[in-house]
Structure formats: structure tokens, C-alpha cells
Amino acid sequence: MATVADDRAVGALVPSPFRVGERRQDTADTWTLTLEPLGDGFAVVPGQFVMVYMFGVGEVPISVSGPPESRGEPVVLTVRAVGAVTTAICNSEPGAIVGLRGPFGNSWPVESASGGDVLVVAGGIGLAPLRPVVLHALAHRSEYGAASVLYGARTPQDLLYTDELRRWGDELAVEVTVDAADTAWLGRVGVVPKLVAQAEFRPDSVRAFVCGPEVMIHYTVEALRERGVPDERIFLSLERDMRCGVGLCGHCQLGPTLICRDGPVYTQAQVAQLMEVREL
Fold first, then answer.
1. With a threshold of 0.90, does the pTM exceed it?
2. pLDDT tens across 220-253, in order?
3. Strand locations in 201-278 (E)
4. Domain limits, the chain
5. Which uninterrupted H or E stretch holds 11?
6. What sign for the dihedral angle of Cα 241, 59, 72, 34?
7. Which of 74, 93, 124, 145 lies 20 to 30 A from 22 at CA?
8. How far apart are CA 240 and CA 56, in angstroms?
9. 4-103 and 111-275 share one CATH topology?
10. Fold of the domain spanning 4-103
11. What is the bridge-based pairing of β-strands 147-153 and 58-66?
12. CATH 3.40.50.920 fits 111-275, yes or no
């Protein structure tokens, strides 16, 4: 008879089969896939990731952009095609079978933000891991004060979830910017950390959730500090070379921490000194 320990071991080490249900192209190199479990599936909390196994190609870690609240529900992943495995994932047609291990990692502390303000700051595909935070804030809007989404991408063509961004703006303060605009773009131009200065939040009650390229995270943290937000209230999702998901291979080591095991979500207070050392 299978035990809870057996079930956890399988989830950690053996891929479970999922069928591609829907596949939507978001940008020239990014797709969002809805994966339907062929077995029991698993529950995922906002911020966690899964190891996605493409049979005969390889395996990569992908943050969950639409976590199921309970077993048996589909898992949503937004994937950028940057290598052999991610390209194979993005090319998977509806009906194709992929393997998922997990879920792994800790979570965004969205529930602890209840009663205060919420600020989401994302760059590029970094909006994908933060999408569950936004969806939670929308579903529990009355539990929060000011709630804002600051999002930036390289060009208008690189923006994710454009239809959702417009809908989110009905209940949240949503500001979108691009690094370089074309003649059709009528929005803001500039880097996303610059939006922090004008965002509505109370520094002593806000929880800031940040994800994107490390250089964007660096300047976002600086901007939040200038607004008086303490490091303990700034939460970051870090990306390193995660390969096993269970803290065995050591590829994702950052100083004394293994991101797949101890992260990927950290407070700025936890990693401030580590992020200043280039060799780490």
C-alpha cells in the first residue's frame, strides 16, 4: 500500500504525466500552456516551481504561473523558448504528454500581506511567477489596502498577458512600461524600477514582490529602499541553475543557500550581502 512518504518521493524524483490541454502564444518566443494531470496531480502554492521533463530531450525548472489550489486541477506554465528543452515545451501541441516533478520551493507570502498594501514589480517573463500573486490579490481584494502592479518589458511585443493587464487595471493600479517603443506604443517608456517612485503604497505596511532579471531586481530594491521600505518587506524570486529540484546537485547554490531547496523566494534581508558578491 502506498504511503504519504511514497507519494512525496514519487513527486520529487519521478515525473508524473500531464497532457497539454491548451497552448497560447504570448510573444514571438513565449507560450502559455495549460497542463492537465493524467493522475492525481498536485496542489501548488504561489511562487513554487516544477521540473518539466520532455521525454528524449531533457528537463528544466519552470515557475508555475497558474497554480491549482487542489489536486486534479490543471497547471499553467508560461515558458520562453531559449534552449532545446524549453523550445520542445513551447512546441508541444495539445494532446502531447510531458512529465512534471514537484512542486518545489517555498511561496510568496501573500496571506501575510493581508491588511496591508501589496506591490508587484515584474520585468519581462518575471511576471509569470508573480501572476498567482496578482490573481490572489484580485480574488481577495477586500483584504488588502493599496494594490499595484508595475510591469516592464524590452518592447511592446515582449509584454505578457496584455489582455489580463487591462482587466487587472479595473481593480488594481497597473502601470506598464517598455525600454524601447515603436510608433504604435502610446504608453510609458523607461525601465520598470523608475515606476516605484510614484506607486501608491505605505512603506510600513507594504509587501513588495519582485521578479525579473537580476539587474532589474537590484535597481528595484534601491528604489524601494528610497521609499523607506525595509528589506524584510521586500520579497524576491531568484533564478539560478536549478537541475535536481531537491537540493542534491548543488548547481543552484548561492552562498550557504540552495535556491531549489530554500527558495526561490527570499527577503532582501536574507540575500542582500550574497547578491553583492559577483562570484556567487
1. yes
2. 999 999 999 999 999 999 987 888 999 999 999 9
3. 207-211, 234-237, 253-254, 257-258, 265-267
4. 4-103, 111-275
5. helix 4-13
6. positive
7. 124
8. 24
9. no
10. Elongation Factor Tu (Ef-tu); domain 3 (2.40.30)
11. unpaired
12. no
